Fold this protein.
Amino acid sequence: MSSDKSFERNVSVFDQDAARNKGYVYTTGQQLSSRMATGRSTDVILEQARFEGRRVLDMGCGDGHFTLQFWDRGRPSEMTAVDAAPEAIKLADSRREGRAIRFAVGDVHRLPFADNSFDVALMQSVLHHDDTPGDIVREAFRLAPVVVIHEPNGNSPALKIIERVSRYHREHNERSYTTWQLQHWIQACGARVVSTKFAGFVPMFSPDWIARLMKRAEPAVESLPLVNSLCCAVVVLVGQKNR
C-alpha cells in the first residue's frame, strides 16, 4: 500500500482543490479544452463499459462530476462512489439532487464491502496518483468480476514530458503507466483484458484554438493503429475475472 505520508499528501491536495474551487479544476473550469477532454473521457467509458442494470462501484470518484453522468447516462441499478478526500465527497453528495447514489469516504486500497458486492468496479484516473496501483486493481477485482480502468495514456512520450514540467502534475503526484503495466496488474489478479481503447487527443488547459484544431484531428488519431497508442490522451481497459 502507499506510504501513510504519501497517501495523506495526495488526499490533502485534492481536498484543498475541492474546497478552494468548489470542485476540481478540470471538472469545474469553463476552459474549452477541459470540457472537450472530460467529455471524451465520459463518452469512451460509457462506450466500453456496460453499466445498465448493474451494481456499479466508482472507486476514487472525486467531486462526483463523472459519477453523476454515469448514473444519468449509464443507468445502473445501484451506484456506490467512494473517495479518500472528505471535502470532495461532501461536494459530490451535495450535487446528488435526489439521485440514488451512495457517496462515502473510503480508501480504495481496502474498502468495507464483502467480496463480489458489485457487478462492475470503475477506476477513473486514480492509479496514476498512487504509489501502489496494483493493490487498488486487486481490491477492485475482489469487489467485482468486471473492472474498468481509465488512465492517462502512459505510452505517450509527450505525457511523460508534461508530467515532469507541469506544476499541476507534480503537485498531484501524477505519473502515468503504460498499457503493458495496466495489463500486467489485471492479469496478476487472475483476470484477462477483454477490451482496450485509446481515445482523446485534446490536452487539458490548452488554448481554445489548439483545442479546436486537435478535436478535428481526434477521430483520425483514434482510428490509426500505433498512432493512437502513442498519441491519444487516455486509455480505457476492461478486465474480467477468469471463470
In short: The chain has a mean pLDDT of 89. Residues 4-21 form the longest helix (18 residues). The chain has one domain: 4-241. The first strand starts at residue 55 and ends at 59.
